[in-house]
Amino acid sequence: MNRKKEQQKQQAAQTAANYIKEGMTIGLGSGTTAHYLIREAGKKYAQGLHFYGIATSRESEQLAASLGIPLLGPKQAGKIHLAIDGVDEIDRDFRAVKGGGGALLREKIIASRADDVIWIMDESKLVEHLGTFPFPVETVPFGMPFVKLRIREMGEVPVLRVRNGSPYLTDSGNHILDIQFAQDADIPAAAERIRKMPGVVETGYFGQMCSRIVAGTSSGVKVME
Ligand code: 5RP
């Protein structure tokens, strides 16, 4: 574990937790940085701040429930006031790639329904150009081999995500193909092309969905709007 990185994630989470206000419904992200946020939110709840959470993954749901945060399902949530989540990489134009933890589908559903979205991170996630992090594509299991072929026809190399020797299954029972694009690839254009392939459920491209970035850095927490 890189202690400096963890500290930056935690500091970003502490700052972002201050945006949670009484009565709000909060989209709770997934991944290590989002888990720091959920722990901060849990502390606030225990201190008397009342809000509801809607989780972007089973893991986050379990963590939030263990901290006593009341959770809503998609049928009860209705309005989501604020979503706070981590990213795998993000550029200056607030275009992000997410899904390293496999929760991209729910993350996108919740972020796209939220009135306000905050991405939280350590400084290693801030990049000049998207494409460093493997780009996730969620596919239904039946469609996966066909999508794999189509991505190969684009000249890219899709790699089936595996966990414990078996194809990784998302919370929605789908597979993930990861693509390591070239450094100068046009990620938004590639994402648009891939998104249209039958069998693809969602991609990890989150184009300008957030209104604010909260990044822990070596010179303190930076909030960018
Ligand atoms: C999960 C995600 C995460 O937000 C992303 O992978 C960042 O994770 P971490 O905070 O652990 O670096 O998109 O699907």
UniProtKB/TrEMBL annotation:
Protein name: Ribose-5-phosphate isomerase A
Pathway as given in its UniProt record: Carbohydrate degradation; pentose phosphate pathway; D-ribose 5-phosphate from D-ribulose 5-phosphate (non-oxidative stage): step 1/1
Annotated binding of substrate, by residue: 30-33, 85-88, 98-101, 125
Subunit organization: Homodimer.
Keywords carried by this UniProt record: Isomerase
Superkingdom, taxonomy of origin: Bacteria
GO molecular function: isomerase activity
Gene that this polypeptide is encoded by: rpiA
Active site: 107
Entry EC no(s): 5.3.1.6
Function recorded in the entry: Catalyzes the reversible conversion of ribose-5-phosphate to ribulose 5-phosphate.
Homology family: Belongs to the ribose 5-phosphate isomerase family.
Reactions listed under catalytic activity: aldehydo-D-ribose 5-phosphate = D-ribulose 5-phosphate
Annotated Pfam families: Rib_5-P_isom_A (PF06026)
Keyword Transcription regulation recorded: no
Matches recorded under SUPFAM superfamilies: D-ribose-5-phosphate isomerase (RpiA), lid domain, NagB/RpiA/CoA transferase-like
Organism: Blautia hominis
Gene3D superfamilies: 3.30.70.260, 3.40.50.1360
